[in-house]
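dumping this here so i dont lose it
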């Protein structure tokens, strides 16, 4: 058994028992092969080399994710607006890392009721609650030896946050209604579109859980802050959907490009993708024009008037910017103006003090005594 035997049978053996044991072993081998084939197919489906990263800010995110992937156990927190591609980044970390042969399991913490979160994460035993007709493993067990992706982790209740924190610290848990301590080897990648430092200040998110998740942090800028990615993404989506629907890939006229570049894309990459899928499905055209995009203006999302969008008193230079550098510079200016007083500096920047402290740590800005 230590050398890898599946099972053994003692003499004198029963022929029916031997047949059953062989059948079970063959079924196990078949299932393992099937899982490996599905995992290989999933890895091939996710072509990370085709991830569009023309903007400097997003290139930096991808490079950092690649480095983080090299660590086997480091917990990762991915922040960004809805639709920016947080799950794709989580998959990149998994499939480019040491755990690539293990499972990648995702759960949206905001999509299940707070009463069922514990059973979904940790599983349950038969009869643990009404409707639990048989024992079922949870996401942690399913992700053993692989990666568990906790999407929208900021939606967890305080009670469920405590339970999650305990598992992250002990790497073990009990199923709902169970008394067996289950050990797991799982890498955690969490994601949120919430301002967690602000949630900590308001009392809706635990500070100790935040620091437990925020070992390695990644922030995906919204699409409107990396406009260099818009046209390459549009071309990629057009090619994808035209291939799926058996249509010729249309050209993008200059006015349509201008529209794409100056639209705010509140839904980020997801909105751009859905927009182009709709157009390819409904239109028969050799050229994508601004008229094809006109329906977006009816959604109430503002569109900038010029090719170079502006926001308030700030103008984006034609050569673009590196947003992290701008954020760092503004924080340093605010601290200088206030003599290092973080409360006043946060007020100048329109941030909570907790958010400012988080960004001081993120940008490695030395804190001056107040």
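and the seq i came up w/
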């Amino acid at each position: 058994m230590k050398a890898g035997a599946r099972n053994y049978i003692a003499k004198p053996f029963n022929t029916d028992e031997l047949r059953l044991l062989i059948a079970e072993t063959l079924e196990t081998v078949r299932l393992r092969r099937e899982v490996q084939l599905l995992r290989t197919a999933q890895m091939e489906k996710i072509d990370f080399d085709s991830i569009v990263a023309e903007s400097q800010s997003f290139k930096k995110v991808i490079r950092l994710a690649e480095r983080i992937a090299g660590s086997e156990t480091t917990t990762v927190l991915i922040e960004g607006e809805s639709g920016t591609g947080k799950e794709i980044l989580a998959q990149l970390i998994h499939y480019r890392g040491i755990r690539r042969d293990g499972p990648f399991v995702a759960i949206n913490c905001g999509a299940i009721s707070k009463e069922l979160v514990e059973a979904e994460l940790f599983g349950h035993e038969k009869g643990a609650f009404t409707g639990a007709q048989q024992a079922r493993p949870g996401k942690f067990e399913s992700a053993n030896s692989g990666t568990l992706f906790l999407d929208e982790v900021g939606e967890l209740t305080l009670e469920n946050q405590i339970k999650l924190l305990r598992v992250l610290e002990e790497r073990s848990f009990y199923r709902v209604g169970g008394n067996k301590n289950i050990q797991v080897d799982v890498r955690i990648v969490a994601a949120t579109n919430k301002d967690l430092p602000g949630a900590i200040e308001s009392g809706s998110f635990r500070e100790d859980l935040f620091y437990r998740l925020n070992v390695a942090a990644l922030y995906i800028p919204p699409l409107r802050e990396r406009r260099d990615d818009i046209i390459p993404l549009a071309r990629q989506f057009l090619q994808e959907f035209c291939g799926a629907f058996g249509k010729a890939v249309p050209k993008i006229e200059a006015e349509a490009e201008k529209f794409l570049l100056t639209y705010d894309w509140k839904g980020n990459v997801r909105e751009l993708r859905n927009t182009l899928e709709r157009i390819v499905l409904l239109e028969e055209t050799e050229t994508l024009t601004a008229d094809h995009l006109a329906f977006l203006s009816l959604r109430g999302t503002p569109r900038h008037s010029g090719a170079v969008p502006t926001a308030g008193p700030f103008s984006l230079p034609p050569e673009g910017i590196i947003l992290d550098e701008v954020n760092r510079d503004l924080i340093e200016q605010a601290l200088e103006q206030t003599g290092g007083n973080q409360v006043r500096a946060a007020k100048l920047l329109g941030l909570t003090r907790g958010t400012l402290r988080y960004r001081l740590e993120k940008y490695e800005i030395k804190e001056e005594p107040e």
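Residues 15-45 form the longest helix (31 residues).
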